[in-house]
């Protein structure tokens, strides 16, 4: 086992520098070589962070959703290049926004259909709500409308979300650019249609139960609520304030199951999922995906037209696969890791690293927005590779 002194020091710095607490576990070649919890899950209650605490993993849900969808791919229920409208007819006639050389905005039929692969690779033209482009603004209006309907007693589910998003013109012709957005939520709708089951039930039966991920779900029962870490936001003066405004989505009777950002999990649960990926799709005798399918997932699927869009600071040196970042150029990223390392992160700072070449998996958990991920994740990565 390597010397993890500097890893531990870094985590102590994270937990003591404007962050309530964090936890991390590292496995290599099937052996736990580092595990630690630092700081507090609840500052006001002086409650130390524990290994069984439950976290909002936000976009780390995406990796699980993509694995679940690839299970259906392995059963021959779809091909990656299939038009999405074969399964979700609401996307039968996609339209896209365009700008003239003079800057005038117009809408016309998309030059090509959305393929299923475009959902995996974030090249569909779907966006998240925002203000930078018209698709983002109209998507924000759709989410506001659905939210008001939910407040009026008409909750929406992932199929309702998919149909509502299909009404919004795309940000670009499918396949022509990369844009982070609701693609993996729509992938959740595809899973429901092809499996005939609600997304949460499919995940439970096909991923969570086989892997023993007992604390991973879209909802939290009352007996586990005390283990759910509060979410913190820094105030102007640097103090931390609890923020629980979106926790209604985790109520036992919540209807929406967001494959893009809705799951709760623990350090140990997600660690088992990560070790399954390291081992080529199998853990403790349970086969979740085939080895070759994991290889396809962790291959870089970006073309030249996409790379300029995939420009987040912490993604230097990475390409993008079927729902995961993929290290393609360690020198460009200033990274001491491996070509082929893959994973993703979540809005509140959670992070997973999977390195099949080194048989290495890392799961990091915290609950703070903004997460400072562009500072913390690369430093943690550097320290862990230095330790092994």
Written overview of the protein:
- A hairpin with a 2-residue loop joins strand 1 and strand 2.
- The chain has an eight-stranded antiparallel β-sheet, with helices on both faces. It has a two-stranded antiparallel sheet with strand order 4-9.
- The protein contains twelve helices and 16 strands.
- Helices cover 32% and strands 18% of the residues.
- The chain has helices at 5-16, 61-74, 116-121, 134-151, 158-165, 183-195, 199-211, 267-278, 291-297, 304-307, 330-333, 373-387, and strands spanning 21-28, 31-42, 47-48, 54-56, 95-99, 105-109, 232-234, 240-242, 264-266, 282-283, 286-287, 318-320, 325-327, 342-345, 351-355, 360-366.
- It is α+β, with helices and mostly antiparallel strands.
- The N and C termini lie close together (7 Å).
Give the tags.
388 residues, alpha+beta, eight-stranded antiparallel sheet, two-stranded antiparallel ribbon, 12 helices, 16 strands
| Poorly predicted runs of 5 or more residues | none
Q: State the share of residues found in helices, binned by percent.
A: 25-40%
Integer-rounded radius of gyration: 20 Å
- Given helix and strand content, the structural type is alpha+beta
- What order do the strands of the largest sheet run in, or round the barrel if closed? 3-2-1-16-15-14-13-12
**Amino-to-carboxy terminus distance:** 7 Å
How is the biggest beta sheet arranged? Answer: 8 strands, antiparallel
Order of helices and strands: HEEEEHEEHHHHHEEEHEEHHEEHEEEH
């Amino acid at each position: 086992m390597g010397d993890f002194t500097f890893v531990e020091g870094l985590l102590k710095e994270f937990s003591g520098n404007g962050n309530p607490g964090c936890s991390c576990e590292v496995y290599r070649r099937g052996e736990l070589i580092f595990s630690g919890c630092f700081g507090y899950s609840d500052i006001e209650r002086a409650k130390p962070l524990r290994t069984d605490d439950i976290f909002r993993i936000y976009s780390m849900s995406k990796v699980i959703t993509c694995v679940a969808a690839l299970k259906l791919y392995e059963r021959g229920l779809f091909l990656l290049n299939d038009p999405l409208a074969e399964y979700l007819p609401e996307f039968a006639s996609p339209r896209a926004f365009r700008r003239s050389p003079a800057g005038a905005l117009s809408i016309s039929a998309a030059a090509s259909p959305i393929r299923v692969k475009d959902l995996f690779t974030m090249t569909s033209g779907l966006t998240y709500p925002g203000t930078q482009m018209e698709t983002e603004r109209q998507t924000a209006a759709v989410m506001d409308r659905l939210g008001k309907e939910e407040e009026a007693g008409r909750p929406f589910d992932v199929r309702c979300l998919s149909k509502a998003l299909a009404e919004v013109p795309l940000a670009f012709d499918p396949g022509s650019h990369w844009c982070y957005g609701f693609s993996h939520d729509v992938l959740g709708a595809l899973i429901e249609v092809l499996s005939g089951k609600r997304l949460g039930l499919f995940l439970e039966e096909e991923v969570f139960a086989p892997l023993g991920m007992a604390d991973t779900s879209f909802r939290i029962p009352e007996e586990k609520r005390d283990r759910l870490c509060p979410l913190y936001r820094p105030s102007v003066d640097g103090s931390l304030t609890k923020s629980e405004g979106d926790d209604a989505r985790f109520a036992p009777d919540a209807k929406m199951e967001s494959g893009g950002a809705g799951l709760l999990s623990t350090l140990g649960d997600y660690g088992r999922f990560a070790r399954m990926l390291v081992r080529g799709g199998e853990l403790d005798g349970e086969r979740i995906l085939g080895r070759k399918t994991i290889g396809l997932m962790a291959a870089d699927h970006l073309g030249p037209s996409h790379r300029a869009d995939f420009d987040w600071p912490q993604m230097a040196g990475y390409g993008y696969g079927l729902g995961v970042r993929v290290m393609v150029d360690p020198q460009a990223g200033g990274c001491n890791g491996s070509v082929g390392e893959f994973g993703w992160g979540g809005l509140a700072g959670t992070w997973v690293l999977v390195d099949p070449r080194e048989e290495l998996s890392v799961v990091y958990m915290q609950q703070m927005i903004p997460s400072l991920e562009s500072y913390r994740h690369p430093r943690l990565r550097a320290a862990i590779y230095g330790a092994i």
